[in-house]
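Example record used in the benchmark description.
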Amino acid sequence: MNPAAGSAAPGGSESSPSGPAGSFTALHGALSVDGSVLTDQNGDPVRLYGMSTHGIAWFPQYISYDTFRTLRDDWNTNCVRLALYSDEYNGYSSGGDKEKLTDLVKSGIDYATELGMYVIVDWHVLHDQDPNVHKEDALGFFREISSLYRNHTNILYEICNEPNGYATWDSVRSYADEVIPLIRENDEDAVILVGSPAWSQNIDQAAASPLEFDNVMYTLHFYAATHTDDLRNRLETCVNNGLPVFVSEFGMCDASGNGGNDFVQAEKWMELLDEYQISFFCWSLANKDETCCVLNPGCEKTSDWAESDLSESGRWIRERFIATGL
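Model output (structure tokens):
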């Protein structure tokens, strides 16, 4: 059974902040964190899974109703992640059109809501390393989005994608201590996702000194051809110690986004995530010539893809999504 059954036409009157009647979001409602577990409005465990877009400044064509409908109905996903780069070429804080980028995020939220899907708003820190570099822009962005969508129950806020380089857990904590209260002024209960140093791998540092907020989860990112037993052991230890972990980005290839896929290691990761019912999001929804992208470079279609339109990564993860939750 499709976990996201139920839909509404684009802009249709059936849509509401909880999604159309009978949809996945209407059934599960506002999410919360109970110990290490993501739960729904009834207090039952719930698992989100789906695709992350690539940078929406570079691949805006995939922010569409039909794209998300295909991911919901043909790929069996229940959530989509919107990656808004902060510092790369044409990023929000590095020369991009802020109004246009914000409108893309709004459109993505609206399409997901109409389709009864959850949606992750991802402030995609990468080149900037420490999220405090563009903190003022982040504050302004999250203030606008959380205010506009304050009554929605299907939004998760990922406030810093992958702190890296010189970023420390103390600097991430300092940033989170400003951004989270700002979001909470508009949305008291939304689930907030927080990255950790070393490209969201040092979740043990978060476990040793967690944030003092409710409904917070800590993101772990992996690329199966690079990250194997050591990182899996770290994940398992942290979850067993009560840390709420959310895999908001992963790939089957190496950490560069290229190289060969390692499906043996990827399957070991999936088995671990299944065991602990951890949410997971694959990078990325794009036709860029990279191993991690799920569409072939020559594919110009933005929805209703045939198997021949999919890369090796795309074929594998689609089958994995279909098998999840059956």
